[in-house]
């Protein structure tokens, strides 16, 4: 039996708000190992860095399984209670078994779940809607040339699935009808084009005298733009002429949109999102040029922004001024984005180590936890549990007492 979506489900990359904040996360574990607080551990075939999402009583992720000289691009689901594989659907098959960049794969974008379907995106290889029983409802394809494969995850807005395609040969944002896969709108990026791998973020502005305005904030190479998500019309844009190969998802906090500019030297821009047209000279509140990540997305907690660099330096920034409040070396290398749950922040490294801290005026380490394999995917939080994908397995981490409570509440 497939369950209905629950309020605590983790349906998209970085959770309910797309910014790494868990809702009701009481009872989740702060400590674990291979032999402690592991409710189940399930092998994941193939290679993929998409993050797990949770909905309909299942955990969903994508993977790329090499089959001779071809690669099977698949959507997999795992039963949330037992960890058993519930379904494994081949969505596309490509004549390419190359692993691309060591920190990327053919299955890096995270799926997104709604009331009826799961939507997957494999970059230029295609996008698809899949029913909960594994039936493929529709497929679509937008081709663009990127050096390191695909990256940005799709997002849902009302009855639209929004995806980005930022390549050296073309660059666009498109919205597809979730029922049919037909294109509802398309916005071409401004030239010059270059690769980017960002998941856009939908924000809502409450403006005086108005009911509010929704914006789709979508960073690309060399500039970021905000679009009306209903029709694709550009609202504002901000330029960064030295930025490309962008990865971190934007953050919206304290009335500011926080955008990272990508390689070669990343900067963090705090942009006021109430402008029109090119706002580069008028709406950048502050800029930070040190300690900014290439890959992990930042996370806002209260009036502070927490961000870990790819080299493991944690910086805490005042959201109002952009000044650095404190820094700490976590050690290791980082690609996954941090998660806030039950009053603590989780930072997972490529070495399989998750450092847990309590946010505040100084570094307050709660725990350090080790799993056997590398972690590049971001965790999901649901049902009093953490769901962590490593290079080889999917874990459900849960306190034994919380797990027993969840099982008791689930009984009729």
Which CATH top level class fits? Mainly Beta
Low-confidence runs: none
Question: What's the number of helices?
Answer: 1
CATH H level, superfamily name:
YVTN repeat-like/Quinoprotein amine dehydrogenase
Biggest sheet, in brief? 5 strands, mixed
Shape: globular
Percentage of residues in DSSP E strands:
35-45%
Oligomeric assembly: single chain
The total count of strands amounts to 33
Helix content: under 10%
The CATH architecture is: 7 Propeller
Across the major sheet, the strand order is 14-15-16-17-21
The structure class reads mainly beta
* End-to-end Cα distance: 14 Å
- For this structure, the CATH topology is Methylamine Dehydrogenase, Chain H
Mean pLDDT: 92
**Computed Rg:** 20 Å
Domains, number: 1
Walk me through the structure:
The protein is an all-beta fold. The protein has one helix spanning 400-410; strands at 38-43, 53-55, 58-67, 70-79, 85-94, 112-113, 117-121, 127-131, 136-140, 155-157, 160-166, 171-177, 183-188, 201-205, 213-219, 223-227, 234-239, 251-253, 256-260, 268-271, 277-278, 284-288, 299-301, 304-308, 313-318, 324-329, 339-341, 344-348, 353-357, 365-370, 380-382, 385-389, 393-397. The chain has one domain (38-410): Methylamine Dehydrogenase, Chain H (7 Propeller). A hairpin with a 2-residue loop joins strand 10 and strand 11. 51% of the residues are buried. The model has no long low-confidence stretch (mean pLDDT 92).
């Amino acid at each position: 039996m497939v369950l209905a979506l629950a309020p605590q489900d983790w349906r998209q990359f970085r959770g309910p708000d797309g910014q790494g904040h868990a809702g009701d996360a009481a009872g989740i574990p702060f400590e674990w190992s291979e032999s402690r607080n592991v409710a189940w551990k399930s092998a994941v075939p193939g290679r993929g860095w998409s993050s797990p999402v949770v909905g309909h009583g299942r955990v969903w992720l994508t993977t790329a399984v090499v089959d001779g000289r071809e690669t099977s691009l698949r959507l997999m689901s795992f039963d949330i209670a037992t960890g058993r594989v519930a379904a494994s659907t081949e969505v596309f098959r490509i004549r390419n078994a190359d692993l691309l960049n060591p920190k990327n794969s053919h299955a890096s974008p995270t799926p997104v779940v709604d009331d009826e379907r799961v939507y997957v995106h494999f970059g230029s290889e295609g996008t698809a809607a899949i029913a909960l029983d594994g039936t493929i409802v529709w497929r679509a394809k937008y081709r663009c040339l990127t050096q390191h494969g695909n990256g940005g995850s799709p997002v849902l807005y009302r009855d639209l699935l929004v995806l980005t395609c930022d390549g050296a040969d073309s660059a666009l944002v498109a919205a597809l009808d979730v029922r049919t896969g037909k294109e509802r709108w398309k916005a071409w990026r401004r030239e010059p084009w270059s690769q980017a791998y960002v998941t856009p973020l939908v924000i809502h502005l409450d403006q005086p005298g108005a009911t509010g305005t929704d914006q789709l904030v979508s960073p690309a190479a060399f500039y970021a733009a905000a679009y009306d998500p209903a029709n694709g019309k550009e609202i504002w844009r901000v330029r960064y002429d030295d930025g490309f190969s962008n990865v971190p998802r934007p953050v919206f906090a304290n009335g500011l949109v926080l955008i990272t500019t990508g390689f070669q030297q990343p900067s963090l821009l705090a942009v006021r999102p109430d402008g029109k047209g090119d706002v580069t000279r008028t709406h950048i509140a502050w800029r930070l040029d040190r300690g900014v990540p290439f890959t992990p997305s930042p996370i806002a907690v209260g009036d502070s922004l927490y961000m870990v660099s790819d080299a493991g330096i944690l910086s805490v920034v005042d959201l109002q001024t952009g000044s650095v409040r404190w820094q700490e070396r976590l050690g290791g290398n980082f690609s996954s984005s941090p998660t806030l749950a039950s009053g603590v922040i989780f930072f997972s490294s490529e070495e399989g180590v998750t450092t847990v801290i309590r946010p505040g005026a100084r570094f307050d380490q709660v725990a350090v936890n080790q799993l056997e394999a590398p972690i590049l995917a971001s965790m999901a939080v649901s049902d009093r549990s953490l769901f962590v994908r490593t290079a080889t397995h999917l874990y459900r981490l849960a306190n034994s007492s919380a797990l027993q409570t969840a099982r008791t509440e689930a009984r009729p």
